[in-house]
Amino acid sequence: MDSAAGVIREGASGIPWAEFARFAVSDLTDVAAVEAVWPELVRSRRLVVAPGSGGGVAQAGEDPIERSFRRWSEEGRAGLEVGLRLLSDAALARGVDILIRPALGTLISDIPGLLSVCRRQDAIGVFLEPAALIPAQEQFRTEDFVTRFLEILSLPAIRAICLASGPEGFGVFEPLARSANHAGKPVVRLN
After folding, report:
1. Percentage of the chain exceeding pLDDT 70
2. Bigger pLDDT: 102 or 169?
3. Cβ(96)–Cβ(47) under 8 Å?
4. 127 with 159: CB under 8 angstroms?
5. To the nearest 10°, the Cα dihedral for 96, 41, 17, 28?
6. 46-76 pLDDT, tens per residue?
7. Would you state the pLDDT for residue 102?
8. pLDDT category of residue 126 using cuts at 50, 70 and 90
9. Phi, psi of 15, deg, nearest 5
């Protein structure tokens, strides 16, 4: 599969498989917010949505530590749950599958957070992009993360794997791609 202009297309056919939302789950606070951001034309059956960072837009003079604390506190988790519920309801009404795309710095930024959402949200799948969940610091070994991703790949909520080409190319993630293909899960390669 290939990705361009916000749409993921199936290889040779070019048929839209999914598209990236221009909003985040944390933007969704009520039904009116969902209606305001929902794309008028969804060209596929799947919409890939980022969790968002929560906490709203930073205000002038706002303490960044306090804002960060709100994001990771019960208030942030509750906001994520509300957004996920609203998104799930809207998607069900429109016949669209929702795939959440976790990443560092968002409300779903690690494997435990991802697993927590998988357990609580049956109707929402995961668009797993391993490179987006691996910290850049040297003390983290990419191979260890790949092993952990392989352990969760069989979960039904993991609906697709997204491989972004980094400095090392796709090489370190090839075992994950092979396992996903073997399990019948789509593999999207972003260049």
Report:
1. 82
2. 102
3. yes
4. yes
5. -50
6. 999 999 877 555 556 666 666 666 666 777 7
7. 93
8. very high
9. -70, 135
Domain boundaries, the chain: 2-171
Cα–Cα distance between 71 and 88 in angstroms, integer?
21
Q: What is the DSSP letter of 169?
A: B
Could you give the 3-state DSSP secondary structure of residue 31? helix
Could you tell me which of 43, 34, 107 has the C-alpha nearest to residue 77? 107
125, β-bridge pairs? 99
Half-sphere exposure of 171 (CA within 13 A, CB side): 4
Token pair of 87 as six digits: 């998104």
Write out the H or E segment, with its range, that includes residue 163: strand 158-164
Evaluated on CA atoms 175, 180, 182, 183, the torsion sign reads positive
Q: Helices H, strands E: what count in the chain?
A: 6, 8
Mean pLDDT of 30-57: 82
